[in-house]
Amino acid sequence: MDADILSIGTEVACGAVVNTNAAWLSQKLIELGVTPRRQVTVADRLSDVREEIERSAASVGLLMITGGLGPTRDDPTREALAAALGQPLEPDEAAAERIRAFFREIGRPMSESNLRQALIPRGCRVLENLWGTAPGIRAELGRAVVYALPGVPREMREMFTRSVEADVRARGKGSAVAVRVLRTYGLGESVIGERLSNLMAADRNPSVGTQASEGLISVRIVGRGASPAEAKRLVDEDAAQVRTMLGDSVFGEGDEALDAAVGRLLAGVGRTVAVAESCTGGLIAKSLTDVPGSSAYFVRGYVVYSNESKVELLGVGPALIESHGAVSEQVAEAMAVGCRDRACSDYALSVTGIAGPSGGTPDKPVGLVYIGLADGTGCTVRRMTFGGHLDRQAIRDRACKTALDLLRRRLLS
Q1: Hey, do 2-171 and 176-253 end up sharing a CATH topology, with the first three levels equal?
Q2: Architecture category of domain 2-171 in CATH
Q3: What is the SS3 string spanning 295-339?
Q4: pLDDT by residue (tens digit) across 155-203?
Q5: pLDDT band at residue 227, thresholds of 50, 70 and 90?
Q6: Rg (Cα) of the chain, in Å, rounded?
Q7: Domain 258-412, CATH 3.40.630.30 — does that match?
């Protein structure tokens, strides 16, 4: 079964609000055996919304609508759906009472305009909203079953899970779907595409695709089979091939972050880490300690932004800084070694670089970063040039991820 996703809202169409709902719904539908055909975003104009509802309902089996169910007159979804159905809007007293109860519960007066949200096209089913005031609507129009859900992401997701998912799963039967996502770092998307080219052929089952986000590349595998076991077998076989082709660039699965993968490895071998940061300003320490349970392996973090702090806190020699500069292989090594000695940790990471937008020179351009990793065998330093095309935040983020990945690969070896 094919599906369209219709997102309603001028603020979404204009880019003032990022449309996370459509992406989330697409992934959920795929997992339920439904194929998303297209995503459409429409501003708050009743005639345009009605036109898109009618177009989708004539050609797909499922139409998911999010947004436009608010209490104000510029929320057009219920009116547009009623017009497409050729039915009047009627007040649903149970929905109205739930709206009143919501305001009583939070101790705030209710505006009469909120009762507009209890107007439902005749013959439609109300979907209860336990997390806000806008009820959802289930309708049948043309070829499609239509679900209109709130635009607030949490409300939309909870309503979908509680009131929509089981029905969509039943309608998507005929094939079972399995999904696995492998997360990678260190290889470019084009390189991954070349290595996985045979798996990424069009109309292949399973389908294999890549997605890049802030330096991380995800490989998504979607398999279809006559049974859940067959779909899972197909996906597992492809996942094993992807791991073989990409090697230790694969750091995790699902939505696992790089810092969580590093934490898992540290905890697994009972080792500890400390960090000494200059240009990243504590970002690596934050990433590591964002992971629950990180107190088991994270010892200490130093933010040594000035040359004086590198000397005072880590014991970096002033002559070393004078001779080579704070952004250098030699200083990165001294920072990592000094950090490990003072923290008494098994591993220590150091980062020193030029995050920009100013401060670069022909010899040391913006985006140049040195990353040190010290352990009981010595210290390794990597020289990275992330490029002046990235902004300050992106350079710091890449430096952080590369440092974590350097430690991850050391733990694997």
Answers
A1: no
A2: 3-Layer(aba) Sandwich (3.40)
A3: HHCEEEEEECCCHHHHHHHHCCCHHHHHHHCCCCHHHHHHHHHHH
A4: 999 999 999 999 998 887 667 889 999 999 999 999 999 999 999 998 8
A5: confident
A6: 27
A7: no
